[in-house]
Amino acid sequence: MSEVYLVVSRTDGSVVHVAFQTYMRSPVTPGGPWRAAVGGGWERDASDVNIEFDLARFNRSWSQLGDPVMVSWRRLTLAEHEMFNQNRNHRDALEDVNGVLRHNMVKARELHRSLIRHSNGAKFLTIDREWVDAFAKGDKQTADAVEAQRQAMRDVVDDPRIEAAQTIEELLAVVPL
User: Fold this and answer.
1) pLDDT, tens digit, for every residue of 72-129?
2) Residue of 31 and 16 predicted with greater confidence
3) Which residues contact 130 (CB under 8 A, 6 or more apart)?
4) What is the pLDDT of residue 175?
5) CA 31 to chain centroid
6) Rounded to an integer, what distance in angstroms lies between the CA atom of residue 24 and that of residue 110?
7) Residue 138 Rama label (left phi>0; alpha psi -120 to 50; beta)
8) How far is residue 152's CA from residue 167's CA, in Å, rounded to a whole number?
9) With contact defined as beta carbons under 8 Å apart, do 73 and 8 qualify?
10) Quick check: 138 and 147 in contact, CB under 8 A?
C-alpha cells in the first residue's frame, strides 16, 4: 500500500481528508524518514511519529493562512475513506464525532441549498433575460409566465423536504445535483 488515509478534525468542526504517502519515486533522496525501497523509489513507515510530522507541516500552513487548525487526527478505514468519494458535493458537511465519520445534516442542508443556487445561476440568468425582453416588449403574458419560472427557481431552496431530510440521499431525492 502506498497511502494511509487519515481524517483531521479542525477547530471549526470541519474535517480534512489526508492521504499519507508511504512510497514515492524521486531521482534524489527526499530526506527525513524516507529510505530506499526494493526495486527503486523511496518508502517510509506510516508510524504515528511520521504522520504527526507531516500533519504539523499542514497545520503550520493552515495557521499562517488563518484557516482552522488541527485538533486531532486518526486513521480511516477503507469504508470511511470511501465516504469522501461518495456524494463529493456534500463532503464539506462531514464531521468526525467520537470516532464516527458522519454528515452534519444542518451543514448538509445549507450546503445543498447553496449548491442548488449555484447550479441554477446560469439558468436564472437566461430566463431573467427572457423576462426583461418580454417586459420591454409589453408582452405581459410571457413576462408573467417567465416570472413564474423565476419564482419557482427562488422557491426550490425553501422546499420543506430539504429541511426534513435526514440523509444525503434524501436531499438528493428532493433536488438532484
Assistant:
1) 999 999 999 998 888 889 999 999 999 999 999 999 999 999 999 998 888 888 898 9
2) 16
3) 142, 146
4) 85
5) 33
6) 39
7) left
8) 24
9) yes
10) no
Place of cell 425553501: 158
Report residue 130: phi and psi, to 5°. -60, -40
Q: Assign 140 to helix, strand or coil.
A: helix
Angle (nearest 5°) at CA 90 between 86 and 92: 115
Q: Contact 39/95 with Cβ under 8 angstroms?
A: no
What is the phi/psi pair of residue 87, to 5°?
50, 55
CB atoms within 10 A of CB 91: 17
Q: Contact, 150 vs 124, CB < 8 A? A: yes
How far CA 94 is from CA of 29, 67, 90, 147, in Å, comes to 37, 17, 7, 37
Give the number of C-alpha atoms closer than 13 A to the C-alpha of residue 107, restricted to the C-beta side.
14
Question: Using CA atoms, how far apart are residues 110 and 128, in angstroms rounded to an integer?
Answer: 25
Dump the DSSP string for 60-90. Answer: HHHHHHT---EEEEEEPPHHHHHHTTTTGGG
Amino acid at 105: M
How many helices (H) and strands (E) in the chain? 6, 8
The confidence band for 1, taking pLDDT boundaries of 50, 70 and 90, is: low
